[in-house]
Amino acid sequence: MPAGASERFVLDSYALLAYFQDEEGADKVQTVLEMGSEGKAHLFLSVVNLGEVLYVVERERGVSRAHEILARIEEMPIEIVDVDRKMTLEAAHLKARYPIAYADCFALALARIQGASLVTGDPEFRTIKPEDSQPVLWLREDA
How many other CB atoms are found less than 10 A from the CB of residue 16? Predict the structure, then answer.
């Protein structure tokens, strides 16, 4: 964790795609990224959600754009977290209980493991019961 960082955030693919496509909530993602750069927060991204960002970009904009986005993400103050057994089991538990995308389960599992707030605008996360949830920084009011 960066020295002095007190806040912890997990970005999901929705958050990064909103940022790169300058959609609603991009300003909130920018603020979180600045907090990470200034050492005020520790930012995380599951490698599964990284893959989700890249496949969406490649499908919509091509492989060269996906490579550009990957390079930009690697320059950001975000710790890319590999999936291990603990995270996989947590994601599987969440998927069994809720009608959310499996990749989204990894973002929430990582947030739970890290004791972090989830940064998203994906309304699927509204279905999560409080006992399985984490604090959420919503990118959209209508999510």
Answer: 27
CATH topology of domain 7-138: Rossmann fold (3.40.50)
Is the whole-model pTM more than 0.70?
A: yes
Q: Beta-strand (E) ranges in 1-143?
A: 7-11, 41-46, 78-81, 117-120, 136-138
**Every domain of the chain and the residues it spans:** 7-138
pLDDT tens-digit map of 10-40: 999 999 999 999 999 999 999 999 999 999 9
Which candidate, 52, 140, 139, 47, places its Cα nearest to that of 100? 52
Q: Phi first, then psi: what are they for 130, rounded to 5°? A: -50, -35
pLDDT at 3 over 70: no
Contacts by residues 53-62 (CB-CB < 8 Å, ≥ 24 positions apart): 53/13, 53/16, 53/17, 53/20, 56/13, 56/17, 57/17, 57/20
* Averaged pLDDT for residues 110-131: 95
